[in-house]
Amino acid sequence: KCVGVSRKPRLAEGKTFCTPCYKGTLPAVDSRVDEIVLQLKSRCPLSTRGCNWLGQLGDIPQHMCVCVKLRAHCVFGCGEVLERCETNEHLKKCSLRREQCEYCGEGIEVSGANRHIALCPRHPDGEVSCPYKELGCDVLGIKRKDLDTHLADYSISHQKLMLREIHQLRSENNKLRSETDKLRDVSERKECENSKKFQYLKRRNLIIHKRIWILLTLAVLGIAILMSYLRTERNRVDEKEHSIQSNKDSIQSNKQSIQSNKDSIQSHDQSMRFMLPSTVFNTTYLYDYIQD
Fold first, then answer.
1. 135-149, pLDDT tens digit by residue?
2. What span, in angstroms and rounded, lies between the C-alpha atoms of 97 and 76?
C-alpha cells in the first residue's frame, strides 16, 4: 500500500505486506522475501547531504554508525549540531572544550584560560600583588615570574615603607600605652571608691541586721507575753464558766427541792382539810364539857 520496499514483509491473503501497512493480526515474517529485500542495492539515507555510500539494504544500520554526514550535538554541550566529518575540527576550537592546566593540574575551559592564568597559583604569567602592597607599594600588574625581580629592584623602597610603618605603629603603641595608663588610674580610683562604698554598705548591713535581730527578739517576747496573757484569760474564763455551771446545777437542785416542798405542802393542806371538821367538833365538845 505504501509502494515502498517491504521491511519485515508479512505474507497474508496471498499477498506480501510490510509490517506498518498490514491491519489485523500479524502473521509470521516471510523470511524468504525478507532475505531478498535485504540484498537489494541502496544508497545512504543521507545521500541528499552528500554521502556517496552504496551497498545492500541490510548494511544500512552498520553504515549509519560511521556515516560522515550523520549529525549530532557537540559532546561538550555548546549547542552546536555538527556532521560527523566536522566534529574533530569543531572540538579543537569549541569554547567549552576543557583542558588541564600544565602548572596546577586543574581542568579549565578554553574560553576561560586567560581568567585562569590570572588566578592560577603556579602559572608564571599570572598577575600577583606585591607583598608590600598593604604598606603602600603601588606597583600593579606584576607577573609571578617577575616578582623576585620586583622585590630586588624595590628593596630600598620597601624598607622605607617598613620603617614608616614601624614608626607609625610605635606612635600608635605609645598612644595606646598612654591611654592604658589613664584607664588604669581611673580604674584604680574607681576601685578605691567602690571599696569605700562596699565597706560603708557592709557596716550599714551589719547595723540593719542587728536592728532586725532586736526587732525579731522583741516580737518573739511580745508574742510569748501575749500568749501567756491569753492563756491566763482563757483559764479565768474557764473557771467562770465552771462556776456558772455549778451555780446552774445548784439552782436546778433548789428548784427541785422547792418543787418537792411545794408538793408536800399541798398534800399537807389536803390532809388538813379532812381533819378540820372533826377537830372543830372535838373542840366544841370539849368546851361544852368544861362548861358543865
1. 888 877 777 777 778
2. 6
